[in-house]
Specification:
Keywords: Signal. It is a single chain. By secondary structure, the chain is an all-beta fold. The strands form 2 sheets. Strands 1, 2, 3, 4, 7 and 10 form a 6-stranded antiparallel β-sheet that branches. Strands 6-5-8-9-11 form a 5-stranded antiparallel β-sheet, with no helix packed on it. The radius of gyration is 19 Å and the shape is elongated.
Length: 192
């Protein structure tokens, strides 16, 4: 039997594969918003986001999921905005990372994806959107030094637009992120 400690913290918490009365479910590092996407006899009228996942790619953030209740005659625009703490370090040829050459700064990154109408099947489409890569914010003393950069993401906003319909999901990552799949996050859908 699964315990609640295995589930991701989300604004809608319920066991895996069980819809919550408030319209969503979360579990195993995934969140669904807007119910069951027209399954089980429910009418499909608003865009639904299911199986939302995030992955920290170092200096980029990736969001994946499935959109349901789409209009098959219009493109879908997806924007992912994220912010966090950028840490840049410089490693000298001897393999050391002297403190004066380690810098931190707040950054915001963004990425977009368009799903063409012809890729929408049965009112559904999978999506993957990544933020753009961030260029170096700080310079190392010379070309012999190796620069390493990483962003610890703290929050992200996913905006899905199709025609006049718009869904905005705001998420926070508890304690920031490290490279790999993000399993501890809270999300809330904002009505527009």
């Amino acid at each position: 039997m699964l315990t609640s400690s295995l589930f991701v913290a989300c604004s809608f918490i319920a066991p895996v594969a069980t819809a919550h009365a408030s319209g969503g479910w979360c579990g195993w590092g995934k969140c669904d918003f807007g119910g069951l996407g027209g399954q089980g006899g429910h009418k499909c009228k608003d865009i639904k986001v299911e199986d939302l996942e995030f992955r920290d790619l170092g200096t980029r953030l990736r969001a994946t999921g499935e959109l349901k209740c789409l209009d098959g005659n219009r493109d879908v625009e997806i924007t992912l905005r994220a912010e966090g703490e950028l840490e840049v370090s410089c490693e000298n040829p001897g393999g050391n990372k002297p403190k004066p050459h380690q810098k931190q700064s707040r950054v915001k990154v963004e990425g977009e994806e368009t799903i063409p109408a012809e890729d929408i099947e049965k009112r559904s489409a999978d999506f993957t959107v990544k933020t753009d890569a961030i260029g170096p914010k700080h310079k190392c003393p010379n070309a012999n030094w190796k620069q390493e950069a990483d962003i610890s993401f703290e929050r992200a906003t996913l905006v899905i637009e199709q025609g006049r319909e718009k869904v905005v999901i705001q998420c926070t990552f508890d304690g920031g992120t490290s490279d790999g799949r993000i399993t501890d996050f809270d999300c809330e859908e904002k009505k527009h």
